[in-house]
């Protein structure tokens, strides 16, 4: 029974974190345990992403950021990479069709240049079409790596210095944040990693400075709104001090 039903500010039902980020891990193991090909795990994981994104929107989360494909995931078999890319295309086609109804703003974090022209075109269309929506925003990390993002931002800042647009002495944490894929978006409050792995895997390295982590053994294809409620309840039990006392 989900705990967090709708947007609320009552003392009994605390508001959800403003920004939740998820490493959607465990698709492969889920499929293997069921005697299915790994790609079946990604298909199930893709459905769970839809369900969790809708749930986040309905309970008043403002931003959901998911790790869909890392800079290291190209090491997987061609079959698996192309299955994941196919699921992303399918999701974007559907998202475009339902955009008027769902009003979900979609953004993409990562070095998108390595993606196929077809996927790039869909991403561009989705990005532009959904830009007008002000409510819930889902950020999909594609060919994303936290270190790569920081290098990319440093390079862009250095470039701005060479053209005179920026000066090295003006660089602050806040200015640097504006060169990241997540420019203008608040840092994640809660980062969830299902599947039992307890590591960051190059996800939102800069943005996670003060995030609360939540790890669970549940595999991503088995992740439900009730599991998300548990993560949010755990988040509310934390004492966030941001370096203070
Ligand atoms: C990690 O599990 C998952 C991925 C690398 C791919 C995630 C992609 C999707 C859920 C599909 C498309 C996404 C969207 C947003 C529509 P794993 O394969 O590493 O699992 P394992 O650790 O059990 O092998």
3D structure, described in words:
Substrate binds at residues 26-30, 38, 42, 70-72, 74, 76, 193, 199-201. Pfam families: Prenyltransf (PF01255). Its EC number is 2.5.1.-. This protein has helices at 27-33, 38-59, 78-102, 117-130, 146-162, 173-177, 225-237, and strands at residues 19-23, 63-70, 105-109, 137-144, 190-193, 212-215. It is α/β, with parallel strands linked by helices and 245 residues long. It has a 6-stranded parallel sheet, with helices on both faces. Helix 1 crosses helix 2 and helix 3 packs parallel to helix 4 (117-130). Mean pLDDT is 94; it is low at 8-12. Bound molecules: farnesyl diphosphate. The site of farnesyl diphosphate (FPP) has 19 residues, from helix 1, helix 2, strand 2 and helix 3.
What radius of gyration results from the CA coordinates?
Answer: 18 Å
Bound molecules: farnesyl diphosphate
**Mean pLDDT value:** 94
Major sheet, described briefly? 6 strands, parallel
Low-confidence stretches: 8-12
For the biggest β-sheet, the strand order reads 3-4-2-1-5-6
Number of strands: 6
Shape by Cα distribution: globular
By secondary-structure content and strand pairing, the structural class works out as alpha/beta
What is the N-to-C succession of helices and strands?
Answer: EHHEHEHEHHEEH
Q: Helical proportion?
A: 40-55%
Q: First CA to last CA: what distance? A: 36 Å
Given the structure, what is the number of helices? 7
**Beta-strand percent range:** 5-15%
């Amino acid at each position: 029974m989900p705990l967090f039903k709708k947007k609320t500010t009552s003392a009994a039902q605390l508001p959800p974190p403003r920004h939740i980020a998820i490493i959607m891990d465990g698709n492969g193991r889920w499929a293997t345990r069921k005697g299915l090909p790994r790609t079946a795990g990604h298909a199930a994981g893709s459905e769970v992403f839809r369900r969790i994104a809708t749930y986040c929107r309905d309970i008043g989360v403002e931003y959901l950021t998911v790790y869909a494909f890392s800079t290291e995931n190209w090491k997987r078999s061609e079959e698996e990479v192309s299955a994941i890319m196919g699921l992303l295309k399918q999701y974007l086609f559907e998202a475009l069709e339902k955009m008027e109804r769902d009003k979900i703003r979609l953004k993409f974090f990562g070095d998108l240049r390595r993606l196929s022209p077809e996927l790039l075109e869909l991403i561009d269309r989705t990005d532009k079409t959904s830009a007008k929506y002000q409510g819930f925003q889902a950020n999909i990390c594609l060919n994303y790596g936290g270190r790569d993002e920081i290098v990319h931002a440093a390079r862009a800042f250095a470039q701005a210095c060479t053209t005179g647009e920026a000066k090295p002495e003006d660089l602050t944490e806040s200015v640097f944040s504006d060169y990241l894929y997540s420019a203008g978006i608040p840092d994640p409050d809660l980062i969830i990693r299902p599947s039992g792995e307890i590591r960051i895997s190059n996800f939102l390295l800069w943005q996670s400075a003060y995030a609360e982590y939540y790890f669970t053994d549940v595999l991503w294809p088995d992740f439900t709104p009730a599991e998300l409620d548990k993560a949010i309840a755990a988040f509310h039990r934390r004492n966030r001090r941001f370096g203070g006392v």
